[in-house]
Amino acid sequence: MLTRRILLVVLAGVLATGRIAVAQPSPLRVLTYNIHHGAGTDQRLDLARIAEVIKQARPDLVALQEIDVQTGRSNGVDQAAELSRLTGMHGAFGKAMDYDGGQYGVAVLSRFPLIEVENFPLPNKPPRAPPAAEKREQIHEPRAALVVRVRPTGAPTDIWFACTHLDHLSSEMRICQAEKIGSSLAAKADLPAILAGDLNATPRSATMVLLSKFWTDTAAKDPAPTAPAGEPRSKIDYVLFRPAEQWRTAEVRVLDEAVASDHRPFLAVLEWQ
């Protein structure tokens, strides 16, 4: 009966227009969220709360930063696997470094099955010696970029979805890391790509100027701040895409969530062109 109804709809389209109507793939809802290993501004470690924030946004793809896997501070929980379970989405973890008896890095959640997963390290040594006055505790943490290949439902092609978290101390380091992401994804230019994450760079920074040569910023027209969560002052969380002609930005929104993490989640809705 369902098949018959579908055929009747198609036939009606043919009679009305003289051609078969081709269904357009659904818009892609992309969320990026630095979750601060689940620790909120109220000092509570609450991964279930993070999962609820994600589910309410109804994303297709999620880029997560500051993820703990079996660390002491997060009570040995594999946060990537637990968020995958709590949201009912496919998940993958990208290790940036060993930390507190476990691992620390980024993660991806996807409503679509993960066809391919690759994690690659980013440069973490300053291109020049730091100033002598730099504080000893200001250490450049190792960073990584996690890239997955998915086929969105109804889409004309697979896409690459990349999640990253760039250095928070040095503009020069962020530029090196952005260049590494660009060179690593260059070999994957056969497919459209989305890059999302905490880039620790403001819209007019040298890092974003560099990235804008190859990527389209979904929030270029509305760079609303995303951090700190309580009273956001800086736009540092992004969703970028390429090629420019592949999608149109239908909506961007900083979610009104000020407690679950020290960043607010950023949502971009992309329509296929």
Characterization of this structure:
Helix 2 (47-57) packs across helix 3. The model is unreliable at 1-17 (pLDDT under 50). The protein has helices at residues 2-17, 47-57, 79-87, 171-186, 206-211, and strands at residues 28-34, 61-69, 90-99, 102-110, 116-122, 143-150, 159-165, 193-198, 216-217, 237-242, 247-254, 266-272. With 273 residues, the protein is α+β, with helices and mostly antiparallel strands. A six-stranded mixed beta sheet has the order 3-4-2-1-12-11. The protein has a six-stranded mixed beta sheet with strand order 5-6-7-8-10-9, covered by helices on one side.
Topology, please?
Elements: H1 2-17, E1 28-34, H2 47-57, E2 61-69, H3 79-87, E3 90-99, E4 102-110, E5 116-122, E6 143-150, E7 159-165, H4 171-186, E8 193-198, H5 206-211, E9 216-217, E10 237-242, E11 247-254, E12 266-272
Parallel strand pairs: 1-2, 7-8
Antiparallel strand pairs: 1-12, 2-4, 3-4, 5-6, 6-7, 8-10, 9-10, 11-12
Helix pairs in contact: 2-3
